[in-house]
Specification:
single chain, 420 residues, alpha/beta, Rossmann fold, Aspartate Aminotransferase, domain 1, 2 domains, seven-stranded mixed β-sheet, three-stranded antiparallel β-sheet, 11 helices, disordered N terminus
Length: 420
């Protein structure tokens, strides 16, 4: 498609047309992930005993990173697996046990459940840890919590950590309440907003640079990286950057990052609709469209009707086999992206609360909603009937503080629109 670009000058506030020309829009170069830049990092892994933190998204041109490294003679001695498991088949919150990967014969140690951090004995036979996983850019998506524990373990045990960076599909804006550390949990450990607008590599640098790690890990100065990694340059932490990526890039994931984020539309909606996990409403698990569908049996019967049922990605969940009434958010990914306007959409949760008959029972009694929000204020604001604008105004001071911290650790040009 051709675009007409007009050049306009203003004289005494009146537009004066000068010239116009028709040009073809420049073609964007394809993003090259850190994992794909093998010429950069393979020499640093040769002859080393490698521990790999990865899952099914850890791919190089459609082939799993583990298989790719093994084929090139890299010795992988163990694999650490996150939530959903190494192969990405476990449901949300499902316990994942240690096992042996059937495809490679490599032992897999689960870091989701009772143990989230490698123990010193897990790293005794390891020379270097490689971290490669696709994040979605939301604070409550637990891969960045796993990143913190891996980084702490690496620094505490003097093991170099190599992060193969990947684009953030929600990396083009920053929004939401900043977490109050009183509410720290595995679904939010640090004082960042719900949408942080950083890649895994950038966030790792922030964790180390702001000394948000364990006391022992904070004693090691680890957040600087070299622009051209080299086999001759020792490192505590090394980020292998993406190429052709900026925070204006709308990166489409080639692989679904987890069983219940099935498409880019759900990934764009996730920062807005994940709040339903802290309520008695179904967030759509057990349907074909998790995080695009939400509702409850007690909501008005004229709303969208659905029945959650157990499936491969959600073996258990709220309201299974019960008829629910609520909302279904249709639309292609680009349409949903445009409708969100680079913001968290609070109207979903506010409208559901407004229509729910027994408001005392809307939020789960364990107050998981507060962990997702990172504070107790958002729940109270919704209960008290504050408008979207009033709630968003309360986020501004925290977002401004975070943005000033964030800019110190960016590895890529920042977005040019929708700054708070």
């Amino acid at each position: 498609m051709k675009h007409v670009i007009a050049f306009v000058f203003f004289v005494y506030n009146l537009p004066v047309f000068v010239s116009a020309q028709t040009i073809d829009p420049p073609k964007e170069k394809p993003v090259i992930t850190g994992a794909e830049r093998m010429e950069v990092y393979l020499p640093m892994l040769k002859g080393k005993a490698v521990a790999l933190f990865a899952n099914h998204t850890s791919q190089v041109n459609g082939i799993h990173l583990a298989d790719t490294l093994l084929k090139r003679g890299i010795r992988i001695v163990k694999i650490f697996g996150p939530e959903h498991g190494f192969r990405g088949t476990a449901g949300a919150g499902e316990k994942v046990s240690n096992q042996t990967d059937s495809a490679t014969g490599i032992p897999v140690l689960s870091l989701y459940g009772d143990r989230k951090k490698p123990k010193p004995e897990d790293l005794k036979d390891v020379d270097v840890i490689v971290f490669d996983i696709q994040d979605v850019g939301a604070r409550f998506y637990t891969y960045i919590s796993s990143l913190q524990y891996i980084l702490e373990a690496a620094l505490e045990n003097h093991k170099p950590l190599m992060i193969l960076d990947r684009p953030n599909p929600n990396g083009f804006y920053v929004d939401g309440p900043v977490l109050d550390r009183t509410f720290s949990s595995f679904v939010g450990m640090q004082p960042i907003p719900v949408v942080h607008g950083m890649t895994i590599g950038e966030y790792a640098m922030m964790l180390a640079g702001e000394k948000w790690l364990s006391q022992k890990a904070n004693e090691i100065h680890a957040y600087n990286i070299t622009t051209e990694p080299s086999v001759d340059t020792p490192f505590h932490m090394q980020v292998i950057k993406c190429k052709n990526y900026t925070h204006d890039t709308k990166y489409k994931l080639p692989v679904a990052p987890s069983p219940n984020l099935k498409d880019m539309g759900a990934i764009y909606l996730y920062p807005s609709t994940c709040f339903f996990e802290g309520t008695v409403l179904s967030e759509g698990r057990g349907t074909a469209m998790p995080f695009r569908i939400f509702g409850h049996p007690d909501l008005p019967k004229h709303l969208y009707r659905f029945t959650p049922r157990a499936n491969a990605g959600a073996k258990t969940g709220k309201l299974f086999n019960q008829t629910c009434y609520g909302w279904k958010i249709d639309g292609q990914a680009d349409e949903l992206l445009a409708s969100l306007q680079h913001k968290i959409n609070l109207s979903y949760i506010i409208e559901a609360y407004t229509l729910f008959p027994d408001k005392e029972k809307f939020f789960l009694p364990n107050l998981f909603f507060d962990k997702l929000a990172g504070n107790s204020l958002l729940r109270k604001q919704i209960s008290e009937g504050l408008t979207v604008g009033e709630i968003r105004d309360s986020w501004k001071p925290g977002l401004l503080t975070f943005m000033n911290i964030r800019k110190k650790y960016l590895l890529y040009p920042d977005f040019t629109i929708s700054k708070p």
